[in-house]
Each structure stands twice: as C-alpha cells, then as structure tokens.
Give the backbone structure.
Amino acid sequence: MSVGRRIRQLRLKTKRTQREISEQTGLAVSYLSRLENGRITPSVRTLTKLSTALAVPVTSFFDSERVLEQGDRCPVSLSGQCILEHAFVGRGRRPNTPEPYSQKQLEILRQCNYLLHKGDKDLLMTLSTIMKSLLMLTGKGKKTEAV
C-alpha cells in the first residue's frame, strides 16, 4: 500500500475530513488530496505533521508487509543477503542467513531504505550524518566522507 493510501486509510479510520486535517496541519486540502491519491510524495516534515494530527507514529504510514516492487533494490545485510527475506521467517520459510532481525529492526531498515531511495541530496546528507553520529556513539564509527 502506498504512503498516500495509508494516510487516507488512517484519516478515515479517525473519521476526519481532509479539511479538518488541513486546519490542524496547515497543509492545503488540495495538497492532501494529491497526497492521498498518490500524485505527490510527502516530505519527512509533512509526514511528521500528519502523524501528529492523526495521533499515530510516523512509521504507521509505511506498510510493514511491503513487497519489493520492480525497480526497488533490496537492502543488503552484512552477510550479503536481502534483509527483507527475514520478514518471512515464521511463515513457513526458513531464514537464509543466521542474522535474525527483530520486527523493530526490520521496521527501521525499511524506513532507511525508503529514505535512501528518495534520492534527495539533503535527505541523504542528513541520514548520513545521523548514522555516523550513532556509530560514533557506539564507538564503531570511522571518519568518512558524507554521501
């Protein structure tokens, strides 16, 4: 399910109109309509506004059962295996690698993968800075150039 459809689904679940969400977020009704119909892709800032208005975490806009679509690249684990293969563990399929990921870890990896595929230079620079900072905090970071 696309992000726009998920936003619409969450809005309808709370029995609110686009106008009500517009008034709370400051986003135009026409913008919300284009967003829900998949004509435009929301920024992280917009998703944050919508998550606050709908009282849901930002992660709820992303389908946890997302299947790779044509043209998507699978995020690769350290062992070289597709990380999304881990999502099917426990559904009659055995993992191909010894690296088990928790549901929370898979959710974070999917979010990072989504942000990486957006291709926005500022977004990539921010994500790179955050990841480097986290690595430095764990003591495993190396000083490298930004993406």
